[in-house]
């Protein structure tokens, strides 16, 4: 647990002296110890840790926030605790003891709720715990809106397909992005008519996207999620291959970073911009390749600027 720094905006908040002990119980799936700890001192479920800005969105996290496995925390000895199989039961213990189901971390831009952390948790998804955690949080009144146009985007962009599938089961609508990101070729092919035209344009930011932008962004989702068949299907369509919107960079940036020369060549042949700088680092795909020491891709891009 981080010490409070003199410059911290939260110097009036103190971590509970037994927070570390409770965290060990969470990491090891020790239900009885956790139950005894929060019963002996109910203030534990409201206590916060990580009280400095270096923790980003996880600054000021409560015990309940930790059940999401997001971020994937490292111990001092360099190991990383896997989420225990009874993670949902641990969450229930904390909620029964009075934890606030929709409490937010104190990170930038308002922090995040436990539900939000679960929905974007690769670790919870990989462990098949997204669904059980979502069920428990909903049972205790957590807010979740599956009607939003982008309800599935966060889960797919953060490699949490199990969370996306749970949201679909709860009523979230599947569009071209979800079909591509989940690699569901039946759904993806169903997004197009017999002549290869997109049947329904998705909405983002309150407006309908163009078909070219939608196809380009769907390819980015498919590529980031390593859905090869979906990538092969979409790249033969008429798409805008310079789309961003899945964390950072275009598909060409991602391919350059990964050293995926074949994909770099395919995208450039389809018209992707080799000089694109539309990312927080203001870097071209060549810059990304060089930064990640992808010399073969970097050499090819230098000769095709």
Structure description:
The chain has helices spanning 19-28, 31-40, 63-66, 87-96, 114-119, 122-126, 130-139, 153-157, 161-169, 176-182, 185-189, 211-224, 228-234, 251-258, 261-269, 285-291, 295-302; strands spanning 203-204, 207-208. By secondary structure, the protein is mainly alpha-helical. It folds into two domains: 19-144, Ankyrin repeat-containing domain (Serine Threonine Protein Phosphatase 5, Tetratricopeptide repeat), CATH 1.25.40.20; 175-302, Ankyrin repeat-containing domain (Serine Threonine Protein Phosphatase 5, Tetratricopeptide repeat). The chain has a two-stranded antiparallel ribbon with strand order 1-2. A hairpin with a 2-residue loop joins strand 1 (203-204) and strand 2. Helix 1 packs antiparallel against helix 2 (31-40), helix 10 (176-182) packs parallel to helix 12 and helix 14 (251-258) runs antiparallel to helix 15. The longest helix is centred in the last third of the chain and has 14 residues, at 211-224.
What's this entry about, in short?
This protein is mostly helical. 44% of the residues lie in helices and 1% in strands.
> Over the alpha carbons, how many angstroms does the gyration radius reach?
22 Å
CATH superfamily of the largest domain: Ankyrin repeat-containing domain
Put simply, the count of helices is 17
Helix content: 40-55%
The level 1 CATH classification of the largest domain is Mainly Alpha
Instruction: Assess the beta-strand content as a share of residues.
Output: under 5%
Sequence stretches where pLDDT stays below 50 over 5 or more residues: 1-11
């Amino acid at each position: 647990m981080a010490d409070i720094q003199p410059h911290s905006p939260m110097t009036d908040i103190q971590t509970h002296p037994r927070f570390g002990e409770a965290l060990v119980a969470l990491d090891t799936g020790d239900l009885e110890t956790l139950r005894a700890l929060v019963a002996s001192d109910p203030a534990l479920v409201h206590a916060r840790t990580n009280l400095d800005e270096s923790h980003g969105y996880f600054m000021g996290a409560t015990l309940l926030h930790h059940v999401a496995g997001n971020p994937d925390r490292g111990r001092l000895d360099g190991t990383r605790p896997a989420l225990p199989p009874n993670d949902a039961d641990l969450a229930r213990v904390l909620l029964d003891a009075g934890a606030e189901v929709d409490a937010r971390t104190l990170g930038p831009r308002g922090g995040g709720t436990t539900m939000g952390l679960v929905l974007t948790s690769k670790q919870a998804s990989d462990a098949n715990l997204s669904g059980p955690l979502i069920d428990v949080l909903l049972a205790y009144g957590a807010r979740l809106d599956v009607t939003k146009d982008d309800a599935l985007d966060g889960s797919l962009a953060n490699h949490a397909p199990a969370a996306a599938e749970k949201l679909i089961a709860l009523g979230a609508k599947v569009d071209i992005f979800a079909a591509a990101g989940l690699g569901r070729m039946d759904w993806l092919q169903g997004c197009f008519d017999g002549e290869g035209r997109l049947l329904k344009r998705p909405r983002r930011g309150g407006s309908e996207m163009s078909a070219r932008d939608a196809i380009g962004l769907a390819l980015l989702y498919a590529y980031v999620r390593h859905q090869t068949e979906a990538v092969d299907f979409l790249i033969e369509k008429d798409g805008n291959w310079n789309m961003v919107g899945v964390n950072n960079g275009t598909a060409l940036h991602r391919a350059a970073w990964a050293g995926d020369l074949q994909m770099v060549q395919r995208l450039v042949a389809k018209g992707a911009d080799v000089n694109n700088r539309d990312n927080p680092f203001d870097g071209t795909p060549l810059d990304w390749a060089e930064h990640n020491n992808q010399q073969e891709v970097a050499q090819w891009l230098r000769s095709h600027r």
